[in-house]
Amino acid sequence: MNIPNLKEAKKRTNKEVETNYYESKYQNIVNNKKYFLKTYGCQMNEHDSENMKAILEEMGFEETENMENADLVLLNTCSIRENAHNKVFGMLGRAKHLKSTKIDLIVGIAGCMAQEEVVAQEILKKYKWMDFVLGTHNIEQLSELVYASLKKHELKIEAQSCEGKVIEGLPTTRNSKVKAFVNIMYGCDKFCTYCIVPYTRGKQRSRKPNDIIKEVEQLVKEGYQEVTLLGQNVNAYGKDLNINYTMTDLLVDVAKTNINRIRFVTSHPWDFTDDMIETIAKYENIMPSIHLPVQSGNNEILKLMGRRYTKEEYLTLFNKIKRKIPNVSITTDIIVGFPNENEEQFNDTLDLVNKCKFDLAFTFIFSKRVGTPAEKMQDTISIKEKEKRLYKLNELINKYALENNKKLLNKTVKVLVEGPSDKNDMLMGYTDTNKLVNLKGPNDIIGQIVDVKITNIKTWSLDGEYVK
Ligand code: SAH
Ligand code: SF4
Ligand code: F3S
Description:
The chain is an alpha/beta fold. Helix content is about 35%, strand content about 20%.
């Protein structure tokens, strides 16, 4: 047992980060067994799921989309806001019910909730019937835990709170044949006061440049068109390696692999250098699309959040990016209702949105996370008021999203076609600026970057037609 511990999760030392190499264990030990895996979190969490799928498949499990058919239920969880917790515990209730009729069913959770001390305690108290809890630092132990669960039903917790290592060579079953996630760094050391990620993911650790480049080169060989470089703070890439190699260097080296499209998330405004902006502008295969979370437009709130920039500094950076990267789209994240945020402070956020006219924004009501500094901040603002503000903010965000999309009406843009759309008989894909397009066209353009004429615009998507 390795039970997560909040105090340990907070620690940061100067110890060098180890790189370990994954070795497959327990290959092909089951037959005719199915796994059901549900992912709740961010792109990093999604990519972890791709690793877990591959580990389970190496053991001989096959995937099922239907929990009722599964022999193994695995929930890859997220802790970022309270509602994610509630969903997972709801799902565990369903799994328990299923287990009452299917005695051999194995049930486990992985992901960020697995790294929370309060969650582990709750599971130890009320969810003893579960089989395992697998932490974000312990993914390589998945096969071991599943093997032990096949032998004996007994709760096992392997979710060590630590700064973390870098594990190379994990197998991956990618969800797409067209675009791929590539981790470039793990963890976060920014400790924004509202955020749980530094506690659930450990310290900031960059993968070595060569390991990343090799992975991208392999993806090019396999015919992939696009990579998204993943990290909580990709701009800070390399700082922990002490080899004088930055995010700009990495972008240049990835661009030279000749992969057709490169994206990266998430950029913290703090480490966005001029070099980086120039590099994005210079290389055609680095997409003109930047996710630049601002969180708030008020300086007092930004300070309380520990974001380390002011509204003015954000605007300066924003305008520089717009000026230097032609046709760039910029999206953001915003939190409303940070403890004691008043009307005036909220209006500063609206003012910032009016100045930036974002292409899109993800907006959230502040959610109290156990162990973070903001948990202890007094809050006098009612949830009703916060909901009202969120509504008002979303109206403004949507207005600008639509306005930005309008500029594309009747224009011809490049779209990477990913596959069939949810819409009848349509295909879907994204523009270089990361806008979703539903289009009419033949199936043989799937996996290709093609010209599409935009025929209709909506707030969150565009409609178009393939141009031969
Ligand atoms: N590393 C990224 C953010 C990752 S979390 C960055 O720094 O920009 C994604 C988003 O979730 C954050 O940008 C923030 O807007 C939101 N978020 C994080 N913690 C939250 C909390 N406690 N309550 C509400 N929203 C939160
Ligand atoms: Fe959380 Fe801040 Fe780190 Fe982003 S930078 S993951 S918001 S602590
Ligand atoms: Fe959620 Fe963890 Fe990602 S908290 S947003 S899954 S890093």
